Amino acid sequence: MGSGILDRLQRKERVAAIIKILSDNPNKVFSLGYFSEFFGSARSTLSEDIVLAKKVVEYLGCGKIETISGAAGGVKYIPGLSDINKDAFLKELCVTLSSPDRIIKGGYIYMNDIVFSPEISSKVGLILASYFIEKNVDYVITVETKGIPIALMTARALNKPLVIARREVGVTEGSSVSINYVTGSSKKIQRMSLGKRAITKGSRCIFIDDFMKAGGTANGIIELLKEFECELVGIGVLVEGASDKKLVSDYISLLTLETVDEENGIIKIYPTKND
After folding, report:
1. CA–CA dist 140, 204 (Å, integer)
2. Radius of gyration for the chain, computed over Cα atoms and rounded to the nearest angstrom
3. 3-state DSSP: the chain helix, strand, coil percent, rounded to 5?
4. pLDDT digits 0-9 by tens, 6-17
5. The predicted structure's pLDDT at residue 61
6. Cβ(171)–Cβ(117) under 8 Å?
7. pLDDT of 6
8. Nearest residue to 145 via CA among 115, 119, 183, 121
9. Cβ-based neighbours of 260, under 8 Å, separated by 6 or more
10. In contact, 236 and 207? CB cutoff 8 Å
11. How far, CA to CA in Å, does 225 sit from each of 178, 185, 195, 230, 241?
């Protein structure tokens, strides 16, 4: 592939191309041989290019480029946000979600425009993924429907497949496994299903959702995964309700919804302090 215009690229152009290729394929390892063939350049030259690419990514605060040694080694891009950018984003999100016109009866707030915004959900996915990068995840799982955009962006950042549990069995899913579970807040019996072909036995999964009130859905996911002999190794949500007793204890939330005062039109929401 290293012919024509690629042979004539200057260093700054190769660095830009390397960053583009890596960022389009997060958490995918590329060998130096791949880039050497692609650009028609010596590996020693590409090693210097990658050092510069690392510095650019770190300066921009958009993750890091990691070099992996060994025969099966290479280089990969781990997406993320710097602490400064993350804090600023979450604080801005709190301001947006604090608007009184977002109040919905029952102690909820309207978030559809937030979770279905590609710009916002992609950043949320980057932040959530950063907490699970060392978990050796095989799948990201969520429940239809509002958690899907955030879960998809988390899956993209981790470069792992997304699996969606359904409220009702779909014809196109093939044979499925279904369970009943009790919601944590209203104590209602709900049903969720997952196609038998959707996930491999013995996989490690994380559950991602937009909102957690008492954790009944997360608890249901745990029980559903047991039917596949799979392990839930992490839970991540955008917003958790602070006043509700949780059915799960080990989870990550980005924002905490402390108060929804319908009478006075007050919403108190703030970034969660995760250890």
Report:
1. 9
2. 21
3. 40, 30, 35
4. 667 899 999 999
5. 92
6. no
7. 64
8. 115
9. 103, 107, 108, 109, 266, 267, 268
10. yes
11. 11, 22, 11, 5, 24
CB 64 within 8 A of CB 83: no
| Contacts (Cβ under 8 Å, ≥6 apart) of 242 | 256, 257, 258, 259
- Distance CA(20)–CA(76), nearest Å, equals 12
Helices (H), the chain: 11-24, 32-39, 43-60, 83-97, 112-115, 118-130, 148-158, 216-227
- The CA distance from 116 to 210, in Å, is 10
pLDDT, average across residues 198-212: 96
| Residue 214 phi, psi (nearest 5) | -120, -5
Q: Which domains does the chain have, with CATH numbers?
A: 4-79 (1.10.10.10), 83-271 (3.40.50.2020)
Q: What are the structure tokens assigned to 270, written together?
A: 């703030």
8-13's contacts with Cβ under 8 Å and 24+ in sequence apart are 9/39, 11/48, 11/49, 11/52
Contact 154, 123 (CB under 8 A): no
Classify residue 105 as exposed, middle or buried by CB count within 10 Å of its CB (0-12, 13-18, 19+). exposed
